[in-house]
Amino acid sequence: MVVSKDGDARLLEIGGTAANAVIDYVRALREFALESVHGNRASADRIAAAQSGRALELMNQGLIWLADNLRISYGESGLLPLARMIARATERYTITVMGRAAPPISEGSRLSLRWRPWYPSSPADRLAEAQTLQTLCAAGLISRETATRSLADTYGIADVAAELSSIAKDTQTS
Question: Which of 59, 37, 36, 58 is nearest to 46 (CA)?
Answer without folding.
Answer: 59
